[in-house]
Amino acid sequence: MRITRYIVITLAAATFLTGQGMHRETAERMKDRGLSTLDSYEMLKELTGTIGHRLSGSDGYEKAVLWSQRRLKEAGADSVWTEPVMVPRWVRGPVEKAFARSGGKNHELTVCALGGTVGTEKKGVTGRVIEVRSFDDVRALGESAKGAVLFFNRPFDRTRVNTGEAYGGAVNQRGSGAIEAAKVGAVGVIVRSMTNAMDDEPHTGAMRYDSAVPKIPAAAVSTMDAEMLSALLKKDPGTTVTIQLSAQSHPDVLSSNVIGEIRGSEFPEQIVLVGGHLDSWDKGTGAHDDGSGVAQSIEVIKLMKALGLRPKRTIRVVLFANEENGLKGALAYASRDANVRERHIAAIESDAGGFLPRGFGISADSIKFGKLTQYASLLDVVGAGKITAGGGGADIGPLKPFGTALIGLSPESQRYFDYHHSNHDTIDKVHPRELELGAIAMAILSWAIAQDGL
Ligand SMILES: [Zn+2]
Q1: In three state form, how does the secondary structure of the chain look?
Q2: How many angstroms is it from 290 CA to the middle of ligand 1?
Q3: Same domain, yes or no, for 195 and 284?
């Protein structure tokens, strides 16, 4: 029995190694073709250049739906379709201004409306400013916060090597700051921008309300002006801030996810999903967030078709609607009836910027995780062999109940939040070869999984 087991294990290992060997030749071909053509960059340039930003419910988003269907067809997808989804429509409007009044003088603050905020009356809201770093600070204020503008000024933890972790440690101020502030009677919030960069650019992003407390206006302030406001407060504790916003929420509108696939030759009902989100914020052109993931995902199909490859299992590109302010596209996809007969064995998302890929972060059970780590040396063909536990992406997260292995492309993270959700997120910040290397890494991994199963 022991010998039998030994033989079985040896055979399994040998089969796997042969597979790896075969995959290596394919991986080399993908690398050679991808780095010669840089098609993902050409696609991203066109998306950002001809359409620009693509907030849910905007004309830009609907143009991107048409654009990506055309690009998926041109890439050679066997079928391309859209999936209907209702999404929120929030419009920033032309006015987003704030100033501090301190020591008898006005000081302009560079701000932008946070996504989802209510607008203000024309004269704005004004209140004494109170600087806070945490929700504990807010609760401790109690009655004294009545009528105040709370200024959330907890910076990124600069000691974090991975900037995504620093973002995770600060972003609740943006997401829930207005709720916590309203609970103690504040009339508005100003939130330090979610970035390590010290500059004069405000960064937007989603914020939420709670129906149990009043909806108060919320704006992000640039990191430089956050420092200035903090300094003004130290000199003059009576400093006030006025916020003027013209933002408005409208009823939900009908929109779409965009889907294209190469059908598997042997197990078409088994799906390896590759994707990113098609929407972006309305600042910059969403080049890194997440035009990169969109272009890289389409490139996965394009590379395979160009090389005459047909996977055993279906490789499906899903370009999700409304990741930024609702996740409605991801929720609609995960609740499709088709998920009963189809089986998503793995989902790979690129939504951390089009920077040099280093590897993949994986959320899966230990057996699947163990199998996937064996592709590390294969992914080293493009320097993306660093496999770490944990990861995935907001859009693929809702597939977790299906037992799908959730996989996120992990690019180098130092510059992402310098640009994220701001006017700085534009095509000139994307390096064509870095973007393409990420696309090739996704193509290699999705191909290997589609051939071997999981
Ligand atoms: Zn994103």
Answers
A1: CHHHHHHHHHHHHHHHHHHHHHHHHHHHHHHHHHHHHCHHHHHHHHHHHHHCCCCCCCHHHHHHHHHHHHHHHHHCCCEEEEEEEEEEEEECCCCEEEEEEECCEEEEECEEECECCCCCCCCCEEEEEEEECCHHHHHHHHHHHCCCEEEECCCCCCCCCCHHHHHHCCCHHHHHHHHHHHHCCCCEEEEECCCCCCCCCCCCCECCCCCCCCCCCEEEECHHHHHHHHHHHHHCCCCEEEEEECCEEEEEEEEEEEEEEECCCCEEEEEEEEEEECCCCCCCCCHHHHHHHHHHHHHHHHHHHHCCCCCCEEEEEEEECCCCCCCHHHHHHHCCHHHHCCEEEEEEECCCCCCCEEEEEEECCHHHHHHHHCCHHHHHHHCCCEEEECCCCCCCHHHHHHCCEEEEEEECCCCHHHHCCCCCCCHHHCCHHHHHHHHHHHHHHHHHHHHHCC
A2: 5
A3: no
Distance 421 CA to ligand 1 centre (A): 9
- On whether residue 134 sits in a domain, the answer given is yes
Task: Spot the catalytic one: 201, 261, 323, 349.
Answer: 323
Number of domains in the chain: 2
Measured in angstroms, how far is the CA atom of residue 274 from the centroid of ligand 1?
A: 15
* 323 CA → ligand 1 middle, Å: 7
The pLDDT, as a whole number, for residue 380 is 97
Position 1 scores a pLDDT of 45
pLDDT tens by residue, 54-71: 999 999 999 999 999 999
Same domain, 67 and 82: yes
Question: For position 197, which CATH number holds?
Answer: 3.50.30.30
What was the pLDDT predicted at 340?
A: 85
**Where in the sequence is the domain holding 187, given as residue range(s)?**
93-246
Question: pLDDT tens digits for 63-115?
Answer: 999 999 999 999 999 999 999 999 999 999 999 999 999 999 999 999 999 99
**Which ranges of the chain have pLDDT less than 70?**
1-20
> From ligand 1's centre to the CA of 311, what distance in Å?
28
Could you tell me the distance, in angstroms and rounded to a whole number, from the CA of residue 394 to the centre of ligand 1? 8
Q: Which of 221, 246, 271 is the last residue of a domain?
A: 246
323 in active site = yes
